[in-house]
Amino acid sequence: RRRLEELGIAGRSKKIIKLFHAVDSRRFLGNDADAAEWKQRLGLEGRRVVTCVALMDGPRKGHATLLHAFRIVRNSFPDAALLLVGDGSNLENLKRWSAELGLGDSVVFAGRLHPQDVQHTMKLADVTVLPTHVEVFGNVVFESLLLGVPVVSGNVGAAADVLAEHGFGLLFEPGHVGQLADAILRVMRSSDDFRERARQGGEFVSKQMAIEARVEGFLRSE
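Predicted structure:
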């Protein structure tokens, strides 16, 4: 869309219709009871939780940036915990780096979870972070908004477009530790504000980005 505007085309044609990639809004409703149960199961009761759901398959996923940023966050919020959901070839490296950074039991590796359980680990969070360096869409950002959980995302993919345009969450430049730490701290220090942003974002996703909305968009484009 930005490129079309640069070319002076977007404003002249009524045939250009913006269709978002879709998320399944029915799978990410969550409830407080299940979230509380998972928080207890993971040993995170009474702690502020930063959750990241991403495959651990290499540097492009940004986990190393997140670990370093979280060390800064923990200086201001000693009770904070980082919950990493997923597995992959880089898992052991991340565990080693976490230990070397002195993060200890502040980092919880939940492993790979059933998709139905992922929503609960996101629902229990104070903020969901998508730290990836390269991303086409960024499902977890929109799924988190559906759950009413604040989001911080790298300035990539569809997540960057939607957050920048509507302000439902915060962005940082991928790989920039300081920016990511600052964004997480902003959310934690103004949790009520960002919960409201997430709520509004959830309404937007359910109306504009649900599978049904995408189907209707394709039908309109015909």
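Summary: The chain has a mean pLDDT of 88.
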